[in-house]
Amino acid sequence: MSQALPLWSAARVRRLPPVAGFVAVVALLALPVAPSADGGAQGAHPADAVSALVVLYCALRLVRDRHRPLSATTAVVLGLPVVGLALAAAGAASPGAGLAGLGRYLQVFVLVPCAVLLLVRGRDDVRLLAWSLVGLALWQGALGTHQFLTGTGASYQGERIRAVGTFGAQDVMGMATVVSLGLVCAAGLALGRAPVRQRVAAAGCAVALLVPLAVSFSRGAWIATAVALAAQLVLAGWRRALTVGAAVLAAAVVLVGGLGLGSAMLQERLGSITQVADAPDQSVIDRYSMWAAASGMWREHPLTGVGLKGFPDHRDSHASLALSSGSETDGAGAGYVRQPLLSPHNMYLLVLAEQGLIGLTALAGSWLALLTLGLRRLVTARRTDPAVLDCGLAALGLLTWQLTDFAYADIGGPSTVLTAVCLGIAAWWALGAAAREVQGP
Questions:
Q1: Of these four, 128, 254, 270, 323, which has the most CB atoms within 10 Å of its CB?
Q2: Which domain holds residue 222?
Q3: How many structural domains comprise the chain?
Q4: What is the pLDDT, as a whole number, of residue 272?
C-alpha cells in the first residue's frame, strides 16, 4: 500500500507542471500593494521577482538539457523588439536609465513570454493559466465591488466608490486590468468545446465579472474588453456570436439597471467616451497634451527616439500649457496625493517617443506576427482539433485586449507582469502549440 506524500514533499513539488511558477506569479497579485512614502506604487512587486526566478529556472533547464529550444521563426518574432530596445537604451540620458528601461522592456516583451512558451507543455497548462487569471479576477473583483457598495474605494467625482481592489488609489487601472483579462479568459473557455459543466462555470464567471469591471469606471478597460469579446464571439462562429451576444447584452442591462445610483454615473462615464472632443474633462485634456508631447519628441528624433525613460525629461519642453501638474488620487486606504504625469498613457506613442520608428516597427511587428499566426492556427484547429479551440479563443482574446488597451495605457504598475504572461500565452498558441502539444486531454 503506497504511502501518501506530505503536502510539501520534494516528490510532490516535482510533479507540479513547469508552468506552475507563472500560476504563482498570478496568485501573488492578490496581495495588497503598499504605497510608497509619496503615495506612489512600489517600484517592484513580489510577482515581478518570482517572474524573474521562473525565467532563470527556464534558462537553466535549457542549458542543462536543451529543453524545447526556440525555432528560428519563434526567435525572430519574439526577439525582434530587442533591436529597437538596444538602440533606445544606448540613446538614454544616462546608463542607469537605459539599463532600467531595457530590463523592464525585456522582462515584459521578450523574456517572460519566451519562458511561458517554453514551459507550457500543452492545452491543460494553458487552461490552468487561464483559470488562474479568472480566479485572480474574481478575488480582485469581489474586493472592488465591496469597495463600491461600502464607499471605501478610490475617489471618483467626490465619492469613494471607484473599485480598485488591492491595488489602491495609486493604481486605479490595476484592478480593471485584472478583471478584464479574467473576463476575456472566462469568455474564451466558455466558447470552446470543453465539457458543458466547465463552459457553464466559465460563462457564470464572465457574467459575474461584468459588475466589478463596470464599477472600475475605466473607459479604456471597457473599450478593450468590448473589442476582445466581440472578436472572440466572431471567431467562435456567427451563430454563437449572435446568441451569446444577446445574452450578454441582456445580462449587462439587468446588472447596470440594478446598480441604482451607480447607473447614472456609469451612463455619464459611458457618454464621456464619445463626448471627449466636445467638452473634455481635465483628464482627457492631459492625455491629449501628453499624446501631442510624445508626437513632438518623435518628430525631433524620428528613428531612435529620445531614449528609454526619456519621456519625463522631455515632457515639459513639448507639452502645451493646458497640461496640469498631475493627477489627484485619494481613498482606498490612502490619503490625498497628487501624482506627476510621467507617461503619455498610450503604449504606441510612448514607444514612438522613446524608441522612434525603429522601436515601434519592431514591437508592433512582433505583435502583428503573433496575431496573424494565431488566427491562422485557429483556422487550422477548427478543422483538425476543435477540442483546443478554447485555448485559442482565450489566447487571441488576451492579445486583442492588450493591443486595444495599449491605445489608452502603457506598461507600469504591478499588473504589468500579466501583460507578459498574456503575450506568452498568445505566443504559445501562435508559435508553439502545433509543435509542442503533448497528448490531448
A1: 323
A2: 46-280+337-436
A3: 1
A4: 57
